[in-house]
Design brief:
mainly beta; Pnp Oxidase, Chain A; 7-stranded antiparallel β-sheet; 3-stranded antiparallel β-sheet; 14 strands; about 35% strand
């Protein structure tokens, strides 16, 4: 099968998300200018550089109570900071609860019963029990083609690692089984890894 995206795929569901998979989930915590916390998951998320460490996430939809974007991006525009919390298998239901289109200003930490704790280098909350969290300062927001496609880039200013995930000096993902997004409504967890030496 071959199709051009502008012509449509003719399938019952769009296969694009299933092709580019699995994708890590960035559970983005932000704070608005009034000091209200927000927490939302984004599966268009990844690390993009080592030195200095940098990450990105993309927002691809809007909310009626935000001007052309969602709460996370609007808050980052206002404050210039955000935190990426890594999602473990045990937090699947809590993460999913925070994907609801809650009204602007509603606290998803409270909505989903998620513990929070302050970040160290930025004025923002993070998920208290997350296996890892990346505190970030905004470097740029890029608008991509499409009505609501925005990509947020941030420089990592602080990194939290949960102690039980550090095994013999390595961050061991099998200790928490990261949640990943597939296509459609499908998810996966990482439970088995192997090492491969580059030539």
């Amino acid at each position: 099968m071959f199709y051009r995206p502008e012509d449509g795929h003719g399938l019952p569901h769009d296969p694009f998300g299933a092709i580019v998979a699995p994708r890590p989930i960035g559970w983005i915590s932000t704070r608005d200018g009034a000091g209200r916390d927000n927490l939302a998951p984004y599966s268009f998320f990844n690390a993009v550089a080592y030195e200095p460490p940098q990450v990105m996430f993309a927002s691809t939809s809007t909310k009626p109570d935000r001007d052309g974007t969602k709460d996370s991006v609007a808050n980052i525009r206002d404050t210039g900071v955000f935190c990426v919390n890594i999602v473990e298998e045990a937090a699947t239901n809590a993460m999913n609860a925070t994907s609801a289109p809650a009204p602007c200003g509603e606290d998803e930490f409270a909505l989903a019963g998620i513990g929070r704790t302050p970040c160290e280098t930025i004025a923002c909350s993070r998920v208290a029990d997350a296996p890892a969290a990346l505190e970030c300062r905004l470097t740029r927001i890029l608008r991509l083609p499409g009505a609501a496609n925005l990509v947020v880039f941030g420089a990592v200013t602080g990194i939290h690692l949960r102690e039980d995930c550090l095994i013999e000096g390595r961050f061991d993902v099998t200790r928490f089984r990261p949640l990943a997004r597939l296509g459609y409504r499908d998810y996966a967890v990482v439970g088995e890894i192997f090492e491969l030496q580059r030539p």
